[in-house]
Amino acid sequence: MNESTAAIVKVIAEVLLAIGGLSGLITVLVNRHKAKAEAKNIESQANNLDAKTRQEIPSGAAGSLVESSGDVIDQYKKLLEDYQTETNRRIDNLQQMLSKYAKRIMYLMGGIQVLVKQVVDLGHDPCWSPDDWVPWEEAKKSDEKPDPGILKG
């Protein structure tokens, strides 16, 4: 495999991983916004209670409220853990798929190079051949080069 093929595969991997990470971030942000809105709504409702109603709430009801809020927090933690587990599973699947695609790209690029060489060996000029391409030079936004180690596995 040549450097350009490894670089193409790495860029594809980074794009796929970025898309997965972005969807997870958006979900977290939406859930945080929803939780803040619900908290404001509850606070608004509590502020609308008049003083007499607040004095009539028995202490047992306050204890039930605390217990219920603990249950809600436990349920939220469970949902968050489930979401994290599912996200990790998806990332693993994407990495496996990307590795398979990378191997396929390397195989096809090798085939293209063989066919171009055959055309040249027959004394003809090929009408097309792949350009030499290094993705991180085109999309360079930092000094970091992609790690071709994504192809391992």
Key phrases:
4 helices, 153 residues, mainly alpha
**Mean of the pLDDT scores?**
74
Strand content: under 5%
Q: How many β-strands, per DSSP?
A: 0
Whole-number total of structural domains:
1
By oligomeric state, this entry counts as single chain
Number of helices: 4
Instruction: Please give the radius of gyration in angstroms.
Output: 28 Å
Helical content stands at over 70%
Instruction: Tell me, briefly, the overall form.
Output: rod-shaped
Structural write-up:
This protein has 153 residues and is mainly alpha-helical. α1 runs antiparallel to α3. The mean pLDDT is 74. The chain has helices spanning 3-48, 51-56, 59-121, 135-138.
SSE topology sketch:
Elements (H helix, E strand, L loop, with lengths): L2 H46 L2 H6 L2 H63 L13 H4 L15
